[in-house]
Structure formats: C-alpha cells, structure tokens
Amino acid sequence: MSKLLKQNERGSLVVISGPSGSGKDTVVSKYLEGRKNAWLSISCTSRPMRPGDEEGVSYYFISKEEFEEKIKNDEFLEYAEYNGNYYGTPKKDIEDKLKNGIDVILVIEVQGALKIKSAFPEAICIFIMPPSMEELRNRLVGRKTETKDKIIQRFTTAYQEINEYTKYNYVVTNDLIENAVHKIDSILTSEKCRVDRIEEVYLDNSEEAIHELLMGEEFINEDIKI
Ligand code: 5GP
Question: Residues with beta carbon inside 6 Å of ligand 1?
Fold first, then answer.
C-alpha cells in the first residue's frame, strides 16, 4: 500500500520547566519509563551534590572552572546561573538524537528555557505548575535536604518563575503525576500531527484515483433504476 503522506520524522526538542517543588523531575522520569523514542538530556552543573544525587544520572558535577572552560569552548546549547551555580545543557548527542526521530527532553529553569525558545522556535516548551502554593511549600519542606535559608530562596524564586508561564507553549498542572504524564504524552502526540510536519502529499488527481482504485470492482448496491 502506498503512503499518502510524507511527514517530518525528526524528534522534537522539548523543554520542561517549573519551580523547584513542582514535581517536574518525577513527572519526566515517569513519562520516560519504557519509552524508546524519548531521551533525557543530562546537564552539567557546578552545584555541589545533594543527598540522592548520582554522578552522570542527576547531573555531570563539575567545578566552576571546568564549567567556564566549557562555556569558552561553546559546548553548551544553553546555560544559566541559578541560585549561585551554573547549569548547562551539553550540545553533544542532541542533534544525533533529533535526526534519528528521538524526542530530546531538557528539564531546565526559566532563563535557559527562554534561550532555547529564541534559538529554536520549533521547541515545545511546557511549564509544570504546582497545584497550589501551599502544596509547593509542603513539597519543598518535605524534602528535608536543604537548610531553611535555601528553602526560602527556592520559594522566592518559585514566585518569580511562575510569573513566566506565559512564555511557554503549554502549562501542565501537576496535581496527580499520572494526569500530568498523560497530558505531556497528549501534547507531544498532537505536536507530531501538526500540518507543518507534512512534507509531501502523494495524491493523484481524482479521475486517475477512481480509475485505479474503483474500476473493476463489483458493487452490490448499484443505483436502483425505476
Ligand atoms: P537543582 O539544583 O534543584 O537540581 O536545579 C535547579 C534548577 O536548574 C532546576 O529548575 C533545574 O531544572 C534547572 N536546570 C537543570 N539543568 C539545567 C540546565 O542544563 N540548564 C538550565 N538553564 N537549567 C537547568
């Protein structure tokens, strides 16, 4: 059977942001479970490791000096300074994944997301919203991994970040993880159906198609002649 459409099969560049405590990392890791057509980019950071962090899994942990060397060598797709530390998306591998039809997911903060949006207007930017500020507070305090000062800093930054949601293409409220994962799946599925992904339509003129596809068929319900 010959195909009717040729579509752009390139992977999508997907940016996911949200304040600390929005649950974006959990939503993304659930979304990625068992999915072969999506790849999570691992960032570099100069922030110290926290309990539960794993080298090469959470981040590549490098020194400030090493980070600045990589900036000089143009090794980042984007980078930003956030709460006094550097965070950056390594360029390496991204183009290869996209070319092979794999969606590349970047979980990054707002400044980085805006840089990606202006450099790659086709990027799909999703903001993960906490269901309420009370819930955000509970999640930040409940982690028990940081000092009071750090938590206050994260909470203040969260307020500023939430105000930036209008710069994204989609907002997903993380009330229940399964709901949020389902919404991300739906967004990415719909994006693949966009008309501007169609590169060619193999549609003969209708007379030729009628001749080729219908002539010679026996139809049972011929028009009844009176
Ligand atoms: P955390 O210190 O909590 O791991 O991360 C702080 C913030 O930096 C989070 O919002 C996280 O998504 C963001 N982040 C992680 N990697 C990158 C990156 O490569 N670039 C940018 N711009 N932000 C990042």
Answer: 20, 43, 47, 78-80, 82, 87-89, 107-109, 111-112
- Average per-residue pLDDT in the chain? 93
Instruction: Report yes or no on 49 lying in a domain.
Output: yes
Residue 136 has what pLDDT?
92
Q: Which of 79, 83, 46, 184 shows the shortest CA–CA distance to 126?
A: 184
Could you report the per-residue pLDDT of 139-176, keeping only the tens digit for each?
888 877 778 998 898 889 899 999 999 999 999 999 99
Cβ–Cβ < 8 Å for 15, 122: no
111 part of a folded domain = yes
Residue 212 located in a structural domain: no
pLDDT at site 150: 86
CA-nearest residue for atom 10, ligand 1, is 109
> In the chain, how many domains are there?
1
Cα(17)–Cα(211) distance, integer angstroms: 54
> 29 is in which domain, residue-wise?
10-197
Nearest-CA residue for ligand 1 atom 20 is 88
Joined together, the tokens standing for residue 69 give 């060397």
Instruction: Give domain status of residue 132, yes or no.
Output: yes
Ligand 1 atom with the shortest distance to the CA of 44: 19
